[in-house]
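User: Teach me something about this protein's shape.
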Amino acid sequence: MGGTYSMKWGSGHPGCLIFLLDWSGSMSEDYQDGRVGRGSSKADTLATVLNGAITELKDRCVDGQLIKHRADVAVIGYGKSVKSIFADFPPPLQGKEIVSINDLVNNPLKVEKRVDKEMTQTGKIIEYEIDFPVWVQPVADGMTPMGEALEHAYKIAAEWIRDHGHCFPPVVINITDGAASDGSPVIPAEKLKTLETKDGNLLLFNCHLSVTAAQQVKYPGSTNELPQNDNLAPVLFEMSSELPEAMRLLAAEKVKSDIKPGDRAFVYNGDVESVINMIQMGTNPSMGPETPPAEQRDPGTV
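Assistant: First, the predicted structure itself:
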């Protein structure tokens, strides 16, 4: 894995975040006996986590009263079809593949009323109503065309890199509960990882969701750490990028274990916390200064 991965996300040099979401029929299964969002299925949980992540990313891009253009975001679902979530949005996002965090935050699909909980200093749990912006809706229909989704991500990332070759490379986070239905995804994944900016190669994260009580594997370094007699785990492992140093240290902090150099951006049999942690890692590049890199400045600027 080449590159320094030292560039920060900031105005003039934004990050690129591409989510690939499994929309197959099996995502309708109940997820770990827990209720997150409006339902208990994997699709409901994933949608709620992604919507929360977009709001969290927005908070990191706020400077005073302004939302700075510090990230571009794409969300691609794959199930009965492979498409951007913005295909079903009204204008101005309708039909777009990738949008700035500014445009995304200002144009949610809808805003729902939801109930949140908080513990007081006396240990009492109180509930209160909040406005919850929604961009991603739960979908569970069809097969698992993961290879096609990875090819779709390649087109989006390649076009983005043409205009942002000096930036931190794109981060692709693939969240799935099963094997690809359109052949081996390894080849399109390897092709995707060849994309690069001056700061390093594209990073591909994979998070596998499970409804079973099977042992979780977080950020392994070899196939020896994976479940035996399991055909899916080594495929997702091979697809996944090695963690850059800053992300490796963050992973070790989050999972409270030793994550070694060369370990992969991969979680198997993940729970809700695993998904949230991976998304936070994927958006880890610190928000940098608003001044663009030297090679991007106009003469005379400071």
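Now, about its shape. The CA atoms of residues 11 and 69 lie 5 Å apart. The two ends are 33 Å apart (CA to CA). If you'd like, I can walk through any region in more detail.
User: That's plenty for now, thanks!
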